[in-house]
Write a structure and sequence with these properties.
By secondary structure, the protein is an alpha/beta fold. It folds into two domains: 301 residues, LarA, N-terminal domain (Rossmann fold, 3-Layer(aba) Sandwich), CATH 3.40.50.11440; 114 residues, Rossmann fold, CATH 3.40.50. Helices cover 32% and strands 21% of the residues. The protein has 14 helices and 16 strands. Strands 1, 2, 3, 4, 7, 8, 9, 10, 11 and 12 form a ten-stranded mixed β-sheet that branches. A four-stranded parallel β-sheet has the order 13-14-15-16, with helices on one face. The C terminus is likely disordered. The structure holds iron/sulfur cluster (SF4). Iron/sulfur cluster (SF4) binds next to helix 11. It comes from Acetobacterium bakii. This is FeS-binding protein. InterPro entries: DUF362 (IPR007160).
Length: 440
């Protein structure tokens, strides 16, 4: 049996990268052409011709990673130049009747809406420049209930209809690290095929320690026909939203998402088995995780590999005066509190000064057996998630809440939105401290 192919192709260095990485996105014709040439080479090395997956008259959906309502300079979303290059390549080289681009962001500032996210990320403009027939805001479309056959944790999905209706689906993730998922590539990109339902369910649901299994389950709904990883400028460090850009100038492509993710993760300096989504999907046999059984064509992994800075998902002990009481918790709350603190750090507000002016802030989640309620007296406290009420320490938390100056609850399991909402609420407290005498 022939090995599954994954192509790794270098992009001739785009001129605009330097300015882009310095904080200003620039699009120029030549750069789009360079990326398009690499996309063409990568796709052709992986599958020969688009005709092998796209028939005359097909509707082709490109599903990018529009993770947040964020500008291109955030590096949290697919590079608009890559969107334009992929759309234009498919339009010119296939017999598709329609090429559409659609997604639903995860969170945006709080709960993302696709329309402003497509605009702010410049993806809409890029898709149109590439000749897309339509940009579909998934959250404005119908959803279809789907019982996920063979699912382990995510058994009942609600899936955006255009994703199910398309004849061909092209997965266009970005090469990024991720606090909860270690990396986010093709498998993780399927979180955008289901809606945000706050505080629980669908995008937030099973986004806990079982996130990798959730992504493997979502992949069972429908596999991509082709995966093209935007690896022109990746994100390392505190991804998926607060990391730093890393210049790669690569396109990685193939038809087996597990294999493509395994190769892309290896290029980033990770073992495929370290990545929960790849491990769960690979071990279940949903695709090839064993690099020995993948035919890597174009460039070898070793020749292009860069060790991405790993994300640190631990919020404890980051700041003196910001106490995280999270003794029995899981990553669904734990890493998203860290994400909120990372976002706060990006706001430019000095946490140390804020805490000195405001006084101690306490963040609680899960079980807190060693917690002293007195600690909360006259402090601002933030209680994350649902499960704290299920632990024997529930009364300690309630007692602490009764003594606190202010209490903010973030319901949900997992309350993924806290990385945006807790950040916003901390900023609100900080603003009060900077402009008025502190309420203390
Ligand atoms: S509420 Fe509890 S189980 Fe749910 S994500 Fe938070 S810590 Fe994990």
């Amino acid at each position: 049996m022939s090995k599954t192919k994954v192509s790794v192709v270098k992009v001739e260095k785009p001129e605009g990268n330097a300015q882009f990485m310095a904080g200003k996105y620039v699009r120029n014709e030549e750069d789009v052409k360079k990326i398009k040439a690499a996309v063409a080479e990568a796709v052709e090395l992986a599958i020969g011709s688009l005709d092998t997956i796209i028939k005359k008259g097909d509707i082709v959906l490109i599903k990018p990673n529009l993770a947040f309502q964020a500008p291109p300079e955030s590096f949290a979303v697919v590079d608009p130049r890559t969107i334009e290059a992929v759309v234009s390549y498919i339009k010119e080289n296939s017999k598709a009747a329609k090429v559409v681009v659609g997604d639903n962001p995860s969170l945006g500032m709080h709960v993302g809406r696709a329309k402003p996210a497509f605009k702010d990320s410049k993806m809409e403009e890029a898709a149109k420049l590439g000749g897309a027939d339509e940009v579909i805001y998934f959250d404005e479309t119908e959803v279809v209930p789907v019982e996920v056959e063979g699912a382990v944790v995510f058994k009942h999905a609600t899936v955006f209809k255009p994703f199910l209706d398309a004849d061909v689906v092209i997965n266009l993730p970005k090469m990024k690290v991720h606090l909860a998922g270690t990396v986010t590539l093709g498998l993780k990109n399927w979180n955008g095929i289901i809606p945000n339902c706050h505080p629980n369910d669908q995008q937030q649901g099973a986004h806990r320690i079982d996130l990798g299994q959730k992504m493997a389950d979502l992949y069972k709904i429908r596999k991509a026909d082709l995966v093209i990883v935007d690896s022109v400028i990746g994100m390392e460090g505190q991804g998926p939203h607060a990391g730093s850009p890393i210049e790669m100038n690569l396109i990685v492509a193939g038809t087996d998402t597990v294999a493509v993710d395994s190769v892309a993760a290896s290029i980033m300096g990770f073992q495929p088995m370290e990545i929960p989504a790849i491990r769960c999907a690979g071990v279940e046999g949903l695709g090839e995780i064993d690099l020995e059984k993948i035919d890597v064509v174009g460039n070898s992994i070793e020749s292009v590999m860069k060790h991405f800075k790993r994300p640190n998902g631990d919020p404890i002990g980051m700041y003196n005066g910001l106490t995280c009481a999270m003794q029995q918790t899981c990553p669904g709350c734990f890493v998203n509190v860290r994400g909120a603190l990372d976002s706060f750090a990006l706001s430019g507000i000095d946490m140390k000064t804020f805490l000195e002016k405001n006084g101690e802030v306490i963040v609680i989640s899960g079980g807190v057996p060693d917690f002293e309620p007195e600690l909360c007296k006259d402090k601002d406290i933030f209680i994350c998630g649902d499960c704290w009420e299920l632990f024997p320490s529930v009364d300690k938390v309630k007692e602490g809440a009764a003594l606190a100056r202010s209490v903010t609850y973030y319901p949900g399991c997992a309350p993924v939105y806290i990385f945006a909402q807790l950040n916003a609420d901390l900023q609100k407290l900080a603003a009060a401290c900077y402009t008025f005498p502190c309420p203390k």
